TrEMBL record:
<dbReference type="InterPro" id="IPR002328">
    <property type="entry name" value="ADH_Zn_CS"/>
</dbReference>
<keyword id="KW-0560">Oxidoreductase</keyword>
<dbReference type="GO" id="GO:0008270">
    <property type="term" value="F:zinc ion binding"/>
</dbReference>
<dbReference type="InterPro" id="IPR050129">
    <property type="entry name" value="Zn_alcohol_dh"/>
</dbReference>
<dbReference type="InterPro" id="IPR011032">
    <property type="entry name" value="GroES-like_sf"/>
</dbReference>
<dbReference type="InterPro" id="IPR020843">
    <property type="entry name" value="ER"/>
</dbReference>
<comment type="similarity">
    <text>Belongs to the zinc-containing alcohol dehydrogenase family.</text>
</comment>
<dbReference type="InterPro" id="IPR013149">
    <property type="entry name" value="ADH-like_C"/>
</dbReference>
<dbReference type="InterPro" id="IPR013154">
    <property type="entry name" value="ADH-like_N"/>
</dbReference>
<dbReference type="GO" id="GO:0016616">
    <property type="term" value="F:oxidoreductase activity, acting on the CH-OH group of donors, NAD or NADP as acceptor"/>
</dbReference>
<dbReference type="InterPro" id="IPR036291">
    <property type="entry name" value="NAD(P)-bd_dom_sf"/>
</dbReference>
<dbReference type="Pfam" id="PF00107">
    <property type="entry name" value="ADH_zinc_N"/>
</dbReference>
<keyword id="KW-0862">Zinc</keyword>
<dbReference type="Pfam" id="PF08240">
    <property type="entry name" value="ADH_N"/>
</dbReference>
<feature type="domain" description="Enoyl reductase (ER)">
    <location>
        <begin position="11"/>
        <end position="350"/>
    </location>
</feature>
<keyword id="KW-0479">Metal-binding</keyword>
<protein>
    <submittedName>
        <fullName>L-iditol 2-dehydrogenase</fullName>
    </submittedName>
</protein>
């Protein structure tokens, strides 16, 4: 049996080792991808620290993290159509069945079968296998101009695009993004691409805010030093932002997002809190302010495709988001530690 290297979470918290495991065997309707780029998502970081990930819950440890990946097709089962060995692809980590009631409604995130058909073993491995059924929904052939590292970042851009589209960013509007990490910076770029005339970035870290200005944020607010709600009102003629994105995942910033939105505005709750968390919200914000509040934690096949197109068209600069590149799977643990320390932006393993 052919062997390959894979980063494996063997124990909670954060015991990660690169192990030799069998290269996944593919069935007639599956194909094998040689990983060339996989970027680390904060969801992976949280899963490695707390062990809370549906895949760990389903199959236990060891678990291979990574779901933002791109690579080259290395083998194709006989029944797979539309793909061939040697194609460069970006692969989204979902596999909606398209037949269950949620899928029929387009709510792929809630597919009844999806968790069982996630890519295996995970992105931080030399190879992973992909189901052939419905492959066109999540496996995009890359344009020649797109590098593997850019292709790996199609996934986080798609997540942000889903949030931006669900909340709606009207032409000429004012947006605010709370959290100037990599996702916040993607949300900012997308809000502009969708029509925002001005985007405010809010964070508690001056370095991150300076970086946001380099990424073309119009104005920044340090919410540790000033009352961000008052600040945005002063800067918007006492209106508040038309749309606010919360990209932190914290009860205080959920509340701040609702406060910063103008009456009748929109709030996108993009950052996820730990399961079981509760958030206390004054009822007038929910009722009298007439806000449209949206939550997102996934994306659709269309979002994935459009995210790739936006990157290809140069509307979203993902290259600048990559702060750390590792040339071996040994880099996964360091990448996780850097993320826990809030160092840098996106970390990518390139093989
Ligand atoms: Zn992710
Ligand atoms: Zn389904």
């Amino acid at each position: 049996m052919k062997k390959m290297k894979a980063a494996c979470l063997t124990k909670i918290p954060k015991e990660i080792e690169v192990r030799e495991i069998p290269v996944p065997e593919i069935g007639e309707n599956e194909f094998l991808v040689k990983m060339h780029a996989c970027s680390l998502c904060y969801t992976d970081v949280k899963a490695c620290v707390h062990g809370k990930h549906f895949y760990i819950e389903l199959y236990g440890l060891p678990w291979t993290p990574g779901h933002e990946m791109a690579g080259e097709i290395a083998a194709v089962g006989d029944q797979v159509t539309g793909y061939s060995v040697g194609q460069r692809v970006a692969v989204a980590p979902f596999n909606p069945c398209l037949e269950c009631p949620p899928c029929k409604l387009g709510a792929y995130r809630f597919c009844h079968k999806a968790p069982g058909s996630f890519v295996q073993p995970g992105g931080f491995a030399e190879y992973f296998k992909v189901p052939g059924e419905g492959a066109h929904l999540r496996t995009l052939v890359l344009p020649d101009s797109m590098s593997y590292e850019e292709a790996a970042l199609v996934e986080p851009v798609a997540s942000c695009l889903h949030a931006v589209r669900k909340a709606g960013v009207p032409q000429g509007s004012t947006a605010a993004v709370i959290g100037a990490g990599p996702m916040g910076l993607i949300l900012m770029q997308l809000a502009k691409a969708e029509g925002a005339a001005k985007v405010f970035m809010v964070d508690v870290d001056d370095q991150r805010l300076e970086q946001a200005l380099e990424f073309d944020a119009d104005e920044v607010i340090n919410s540790a030093r000033e009352n961000a709600n008052q600040a945005i009102r002063l800067k918007t003629g006492f209106m508040g932002a038309d749309v606010v994105f919360e990209a932190v995942g914290n009860a205080q910033t959920y509340l701040l997002a609702l406060e910063m939105a103008r009456g009748g505005g929109a709030v996108s709750l993009f950052g996820g809190l730990p399961g079981g968390s509760t958030v206390e919200i004054p009822s007038e914000l929910l009722h009298y302010h007439e806000l449209t509040i949206t939550g997102t934690s996934s994306f659709s096949p269309d979002d994935y495709k459009n995210a790739l197109e936006l990157i290809e068209a140069g509307k979203i600069d993902v290259k600048r988001l990559i702060s750390h590149r590792f040339d071996s799977l040994d880099g996964v643990l360091e990448a996780i530690n850097l993320s826990l320390d809030k160092q840098g932006l996106k970390k990518v393993v390139l093989l």
